């Protein structure tokens, strides 16, 4: 069987896919800021929810999309032909799925709306079904079904909308599934059905419930349904099913009218509309609204607000305009228009991750909702480009999750500053968590010039766990609150800079017997979770080394730009600046651990609240010494060579303190992670970067699925991590894991290996859009599996990194302490036929269109910036190397409205 790929329609990112039901696991997100989170498939399957405990439709995994019959549906009983589903989700239509010529179908979608088009050749009935979640304050999804007679004969139809109402927590899917249906209280009104369970019946307790789940509907002009089938078993009928319900197949009279109350059964929003007659060429439309509300609704108010074709069309236009304007904050224009449109969908993904977290789509990492600590910081990378207005506030709040011991809360609540230790209060420390906040904060500072953020005070997270969760403070009680207190019982606050220093300096001393930072619960790769005692992450030792060097430079920038001469920190922290107090040998594992132990003892159970001042320049030198020691250690001890002569950095030690990478009886072992941070952080010399790329190409690059996260280790690694229990080529065990692959490209660009970086990014794009294998809509997946299928689309941190890499490295638009640096690293194919490439983006609270002109068609390395104009006039800029720096004051003198043109001549 051959499969057509989706194709873009026009210039705004809309696409169309023919016969979409012939590809499995496809789904599309529909969401709004109010908290309605939906997923929809080509046959209208999926889910609707506002949280883990409030699902309107049944929670589903990707397997349920094809095995479960409980989808949104809209039925038509055709006189003389029988039952027909507008989405193809009927037993008869599913049985005819692979019978060519019976029905034509297609999906069209855009930002953020979804249309299913289906036409039955035998009856001449065509249906267009449009779904979207409007940008209102309501948790609601709207659906409009338009039926058109494309034949020559009159069609007599009886329409019925049918949306199963699950109406409870995902925990009830298996546990107490029937018992919780006994809690259902069902009410019918003129336009639809409401379900308000009497109690919330789950592990949180049996509490009185107010949340209500509703399905309302009308004809195009607001005509109400003529009756209802609110009980699933009555709608399906004895021996029937949701994909062949007796109520539709037998065209039964509605069992219930408006004004009824029922209880104790599984519910369905089945709305029967009056029979109609369609002449040739004639159409009829129906609106269906699906809501989650905090209490019973006012049906008439809902009908006025949503249940007419005119209102539907108006809200759809608002929705399209809202998302288009949001995504227009970044637009790329290169020699590949298709890839530029694909990047629009990548640009959307960080926003989706903010709204969905890692859950509530059929592929989900954390099924219970929320985001983890790492997600918080990585998602901010893209939000600085996409939604910069709130980033400072977000960063400030995020630091409240740091503990005084340098660890942090790992689960983020729904409210700003709300943190918990971990799920089910089980403590776990990921050793990489302290590394990410500085990277994100640095990007913010460079984009904004806001060094003042570093001096802002913030509290520390406090719970029962101390000493990086290795111990418990049994005197602590939840009643004391989740803020660190001083000995006097006052809430302690330290600067944001103090928080960052703690995260990186405590980790410097937290080392294993090979001199690298202990792996603990895991690092970025959560699957490396079985080496908590003696495992070490060489990869993130490199990251922390570069962080300490960045912090040293940041302190000097504070001195230069803000005139600061001293650094104020908690007095207990002074011991961490050992070269200023009591120096220890960095070669001595015991001395490092002992110093860290002394610090831990000083901060448990409270801190004094007293602060000391350190000389800023001396503190910067202390950080630099630590960084240089780490870099030297890694270059000396972790650079390895295979028998074939390839060289690279070892990335890990297992729980037997054994080096993981290199030659092995079962084959060469290598990880991509171990190379990324050594390149990105400057640990690898330029010569070593070249050797690493050759080794990656030899051991990790696979023409079928791209750059693997690791080579085949062979067998389960019980002393390293659960990831190796996964089949090789899947998820964290040897798949093309987009996040690390994009970061590999980013690192290569940073170090000037542009052609190699372009090859990596281009491979991700080619794999993602190869629909015959990837089977996914436009966007970047979390990973590509062994068969080339794109897995976990939409919700992946790799989208933030790809957007950031494309903007700051490829197109070279980045901040330097608030000034604008233009340093393009475009290769020849990325310029259009006129020799131009451009990007539109926000900087300094203004929109700019930055156009690079390459009239000589030079490749990267063959051009430099010759001149820059701003709105047609020569721009004052400092040309240095391959880039130019434009002062923020020049940009802030421009009006905030409109789009300002920066023309950059290359030659």
UniProtKB/TrEMBL annotation:
InterPro entries membership: 6-hairpin_glycosidase_sf (IPR008928), 6hp_glycosidase-like_sf (IPR012341), Gal_mutarotase_sf_dom (IPR011013), GH65_N (IPR037018), GH94_catalytic (IPR033432), GH94_Enzymes (IPR052047), Glyco_hydrolase_94_b-supersand (IPR010383)
A GO molecular-function descriptor: glycosyltransferase activity
Entry-linked Pfam families: GH94_b-supersand, Glyco_hydro_94
GO BP: carbohydrate metabolic process
Keywords annotated in UniProt: Glycosyltransferase, Transferase
Domain Glycosyl hydrolase 94 supersandwich span(s) in chain numbering: 103-307
Top-level taxon: Bacteria
Segments forming domain Glycosyl hydrolase 94 catalytic: 616-810
Protein name: Cellobiose phosphorylase
Natural source organism: Paenibacillus faecis
């Amino acid at each position: 069987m051959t499969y057509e790929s989706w194709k873009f329609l026009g210039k705004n990112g809309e696409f169309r896919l023919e016969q979409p039901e012939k590809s499995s696991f496809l789904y599309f997100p529909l969401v709004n800021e109010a908290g309605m989170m939906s997923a929809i498939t080509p046959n209208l399957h999926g889910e609707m929810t506002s949280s883990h405990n409030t699902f309107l439709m049944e929670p589903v995994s990707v397997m349920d999309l094809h095995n479960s019959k409980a989808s949104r549906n809209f039925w038509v009983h055709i006189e003389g032909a029988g039952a027909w589903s507008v989405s193809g989700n009927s037993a008869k239509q599913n049985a005819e799925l692979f019978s060519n010529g019976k029905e034509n179908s297609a999906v069209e979608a855009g930002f953020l709306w979804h249309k299913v088009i289906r036409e039955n050749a035998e009856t001449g009935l065509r249906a267009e079904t449009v779904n979207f979640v409007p940008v209102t304050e309501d948790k609601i999804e709207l659906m409009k079904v338009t039926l058109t007679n494309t034949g020559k004969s009159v069609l007599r139809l009886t329409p019925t909308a049918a949306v199963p109402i699950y109406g409870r927590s995902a925990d009830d899917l298996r546990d107490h599934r029937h018992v919780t249906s006994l809690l259902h209280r069902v009410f019918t009104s003129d336009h639809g059905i409401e379900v308000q369970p009497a109690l919330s019946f789950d592990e949180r307790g049996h509490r009185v419930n107010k949340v209500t789940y509703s399905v309302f509907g009308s004809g195009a002009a607001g005509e109400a349904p003529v009756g209802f089938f609110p009980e699933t078993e009555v709608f399906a009928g004895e021996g029937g099913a949701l994909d062949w319900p007796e109520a539709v197949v037998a065209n039964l009279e509605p069992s219930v009218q408006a004004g009824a109350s029922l209880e104790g059964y599984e519910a369905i929003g089945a709305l029967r509309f009056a029979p109609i007659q369609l002449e040739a060429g004639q159409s009829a439309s129906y609106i269906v609204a699906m809501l989650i509300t905090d209490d019973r609704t006012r049906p008439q108010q809902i009908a006025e607000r949503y249940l007419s074709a005119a209102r539907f069309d108006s809200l759809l236009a608002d929705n399209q305009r809202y998302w288009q304007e949001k995504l227009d904050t970044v637009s790329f224009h290169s020699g590949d228009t298709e890839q530029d449109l694909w990047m629009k969908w990548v640009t959307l993904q960080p926003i989706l991750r903010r709204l969905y977290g890692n859950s509530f789509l059929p592929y989900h990492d954390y099924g219970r909702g929320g985001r983890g600590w790492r997600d918080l910081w990585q998602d901010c990378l893209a939000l600085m480009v996409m939604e910069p207005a709130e980033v400072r506030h977000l960063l400030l709040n995020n630091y409240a999750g740091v503990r005084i011991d340098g660890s942090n809360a790992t689960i983020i609540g729904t409210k700003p500053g709300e943190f918990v230790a971990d799920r089910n209060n089980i403590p776990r420390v990921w050793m990489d968590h302290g590394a990410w906040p500085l990277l994100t904060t640095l990007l913010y500072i460079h984009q904004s010039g806001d060094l003042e953020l570093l001096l802002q005070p913030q509290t520390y997270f406090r719970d029962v766990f101390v000493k990086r969760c290795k111990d418990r403070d049994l005197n602590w009680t939840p009643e004391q609150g989740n803020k660190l207190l001083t000995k006097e019982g006052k809430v302690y606050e330290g600067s944001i800079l103090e928080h960052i220093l703690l995260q990186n300096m405590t980790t410097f001393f937290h080392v294993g017997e090979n001199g690298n930072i202990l792996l603990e619960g895991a690092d970025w790769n959560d699957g490396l979770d079985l080496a908590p005692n003696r495992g070490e992450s060489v990869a993130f030792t490199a990251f922390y080394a570069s962080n300490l060097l960045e912090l040293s430079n940041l302190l000097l920038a504070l001195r230069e730009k803000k005139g600061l001469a001293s650094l104020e920190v908690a007095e207990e922290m002074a011991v961490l600046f050992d070269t200023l107090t009591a120096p220890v040998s960095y070669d001595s594992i015991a001395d490092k651990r002992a110093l860290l132990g002394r610090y831990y003892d000083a901060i448990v159970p409270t801190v004094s609240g007293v602060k000391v001042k350190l000389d800023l320049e001396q503190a910067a030198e202390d950080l630099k010494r630590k960084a240089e020691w780490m870099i030297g250690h890694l270059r000396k001890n972790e650079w390895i060579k295979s028998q074939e002569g390839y060289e690279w950095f070892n990335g890990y030690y297992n729980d037997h303190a054994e080096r993981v990478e290199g030659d092995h009886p079962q084959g060469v072992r290598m990880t991509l992670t171990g190379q990324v941070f050594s390149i990105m952080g400057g640990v690898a010399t330029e010569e070593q970067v070249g050797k690493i790329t050759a080794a990656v190409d030899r051991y990790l690059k696979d023409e079928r699925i791209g750059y693997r996260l690791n080579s085949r280790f062979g067998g389960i690694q019980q002393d390293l991590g659960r990831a190796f229990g996964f089949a090789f080529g899947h998820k964290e065990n040897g798949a093309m894991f987009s996040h690390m692959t994009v970061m590999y490209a980013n690192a290569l660009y940073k170090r000037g290996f542009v052609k190699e970086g372009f090859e990596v990014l281009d491979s991700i794009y080619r794999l993602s859009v190869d629909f015959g294998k990837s089977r996914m809509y436009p966007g970047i997946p979390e990973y590509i599996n062994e068969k080339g299928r794109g897995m976990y689309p939409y919700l992946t941190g790799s989208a933030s990194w790809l957007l950031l890499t494309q903007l700051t490295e490829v197109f070279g638009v980045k901040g330097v302490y608030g000034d604008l640096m233009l340093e393009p690293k475009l290769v020849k194919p990325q310029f259009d036929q006129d020799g131009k490439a451009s990007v539109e983006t926000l900087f300094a609270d203004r929109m700019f269109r930055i156009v690079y002109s390459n009239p000589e068609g030079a490749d990267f390395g063959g051009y430099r910036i010759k001149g820059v104009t701003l709105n047609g006039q020569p721009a004052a800029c400092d040309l240095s190397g391959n880039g130019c720096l434009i002062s923020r004051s020049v940009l802030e003198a421009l009006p905030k409205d409109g789009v300002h043109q920066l023309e950059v001549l290359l030659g």
